[in-house]
Amino acid sequence: MDRSSRTWQSTAVSHASPFIFAIVVFFLASSSTSEKAPYPTFAKDATKAPAVSSYDYIVVGGGTSGCALAATLSQGAKVLVLERGDLPYGIPSVNTINGFITTLADLTPTSASQTFVSTDGVISQRARVLGGGSALNAGFFTRASPDYVNKAGFDPKLVKESYEWVEKKVAFEPKVLAWQAAVRDGLLEVGVLPDNGFTYEHIYGTKVGGSIFDVNGNRHTAADLLEYADPSNITVFLNATVHRVLFKTDERRARGILYKDMEGKEHMAILNEGSLMNEVILSAGTLGSPQLLMLSGIGPAKHLMGHGIKVVLDQPMVGQGLSDNPMNLVLIPSPRPVEISLIEIVGITRFGSFIESASTHISLPLLNKFSSHFGHFANQTTKLERLRSIIGHHLNIDPTGFDAGLILEKVMGPLSSGVLELETINPNDNPKVTFNYFKDPRDLQRCVQGMETIVKVLESKALSSFREPLISVQDLLALVVALPLNLRPRHVNTAFDLQQYCIDTVMSIWHYHGGCQVDRVVDRNYKVIGVGGLRVIDSSTLLNSPGTNPQATMMMIGRYMGKKMLEERLTLRMK
């Protein structure tokens, strides 16, 4: 259908009844063609972008929320997506379960994974690729609880429809093999009950959840949701680094975006005139969105002026409420082969800890390569030799590595929080982040209880065939202490005291959130408070991490808000 036909039909029904209008809009959306990945007609490198272009919506960040949001908005408006990374489809390590560690260990300047280290001494990664965190993560797909949905003030019916829309494209039931089955049975054996089988729902007990890896081990990212988009209404510019939001001179209202391509050439994307519904939406993630607000002059005035940034709005809550769910784990070298698996099962406890598991072949050369990048961590070689000394006496280990499973616990919430601040005014640089792990003692208590549950699972009958009997639980804890998993100091009692173990060996499970939180920086419709034409729709708006793993909910929110925004647009057009 050409543009003139669309315009005529839109005008013809603008005075019709809401029912007829809705039917016509549904027909228009349903009749649009779709395009399969890698989207040759609408996904292009930003070097091919015009100097100035205009759209109804500009979405900054093609991540878990951004792709779902843009695909939905394109069914009723002209949409631009600006993604600082490239397509995921041409990156082999991203597309298969076997490449999980390789992707995270890629430290090149244009890699899909950008490593950062918090001031807490915890190593983490942020996405730099279309699909966002869904191109890097361990794949677990599970919904938020009904209580979470209710507290957010969402419409449960639209939430359900939005989850299902996402699930049709990217979610699969995993084939549970030996290691994952043993951990599941171990959780049930130690009392993480009931057995909930396979479900996407968030339910107390032990369950098999969904995965964005299909049965062949191929990853399906949020980028696949763009197959729902109307190709005639969407443009995606890749390798486009946004430098700031542009505002009108006579009012505090977003009018567009300034961005640069990979060659350093500047481009402007401007909102179309004529409708107050046209908006810039930041979906750049927990680090990217508050960073971009600050670079655009929205944030704590004193901090911005210290970096020479003109203040548009003094908003001290930008960057506040930054949290990362603490993760601690135990590595279990196995005397028998294990499957390559990422997160498939979860034990949802009633005390606020989630128990999950994975298994693989541990490559010592790759571990050496990853850890050597962090020169602050002392005695890397000594620690890796300590690893060999712990397990080498009991297992016949190939010098290149060994088969192992791991069991981890994640603290729900969490209750502790920190802050994000600018380090430089270069949007390519990581901001300075502090998560304040275990600042609230209740988080630490939940970690200890989670670790106690893991110890019980390690000692269960279900896991016995994967345990070398001469390697004690104490040895397994000492093994993790010896690994260069973070930059935090170790104490002499780390392997003997679960509280100290939690503090010293804490890691990120990449579920960090906050910095542009609801009711503090954005309202319940994700509009930036005090500024027109600007929203933030991503994990930076969260007060707590949803469910056991957030990616399903972030994709859902993108779809949910896209539907809401189109409804608002249609309602305004009818008046």
Automatic annotation (TrEMBL):
GO molecular function terms listed in the Swiss-Prot or TrEMBL record: flavin adenine dinucleotide binding; oxidoreductase activity, acting on CH-OH group of donors
Keywords: Disulfide bond, FAD, Flavoprotein, Membrane, Signal, Transmembrane, Transmembrane helix
Amino acids binding FAD: 64-65, 129, 242, 510-511, 550-551
Pfam name, any one: GMC_oxred_N
SUPFAM superfamilies to which the protein is assigned, alphabetical: FAD-linked reductases, C-terminal domain, FAD/NAD(P)-binding domain
Domain Glucose-methanol-choline oxidoreductase N-terminal: 127-150, 285-299
Cofactor(s) listed in the protein's UniProt record: FAD
Cystines in this chain: 447-502
TM segment ranges: 12-29
InterPro entries assigned to the protein according to its UniProt record, in alphabetical order: FAD/NAD-bd_sf, GMC_Oxidoreductase-Related, GMC_OxRdtase, GMC_OxRdtase_N, GMC_OxRtase_C
Family of the protein in this entry: Belongs to the GMC oxidoreductase family.
Name recorded for this polypeptide: Glucose-methanol-choline oxidoreductase N-terminal domain-containing protein
Organism of provenance: Lactuca saligna (Willowleaf lettuce)
